[in-house]
Specification:
This protein is mainly alpha-helical. It has 5 helices and no strands.
Length: 138
């Protein structure tokens, strides 16, 4: 399934142009953050079933984020070659993964009734770092 998503994104990127995949990646992130807050508020208000559905939709967006991000990383890797290991692109990818992990941990800990404070801090820090790295550094 991931191969089909990446292939579709590659075809769309080829037809529309190179920068459109960046827009798709940013848009999926934006929607995922909104879904995260909606899922959090539903879970917090005790609506278990709708919150579970929102979490599944959010996880679909995680897959889209990973697919578009992997494709963008591949584009950068093609341009940079062996220097990709020491580039800012790899650091941005790590920050992006950190955001996804933090979002998932906040929702998981909330569902289990455990404290979420440290994971909220991780979410905010990782999101800010990923945004700064994506728009300012790269």
């Amino acid at each position: 399934m991931c191969i089909m998503i990446v292939a579709t994104l590659f075809i769309i990127n080829t037809i529309i142009g190179g920068n459109s995949l960046t827009h798709a990646h940013v848009t999926t992130w934006f929607i995922a953050v909104i879904l995260f807050f909606v899922s959090y508020s539903m879970q917090k208000s005790g609506k278990e079933r709708p919150a579970k559905i929102m979490k599944m939709i959010l996880r679909l967006f995680y897959i889209l984020i990973l697919a578009t991000g992997a494709h963008l990383f591949g584009v950068w890797a093609t341009r940079l070659g062996a220097n990709i290991i020491t580039s800012h692109v790899l650091i941005k990818a790590i920050f992006g993964l950190w955001v996804i992990f933090a979002m998932e941990f906040v929702l998981d800990r909330l569902a289990k009734g455990k404290p979420t404070g440290i994971f909220w801090a991780q979410f905010v820090i990782s999101l800010l770092l990923a945004m700064i790295w994506g728009w300012v550094v790269i």
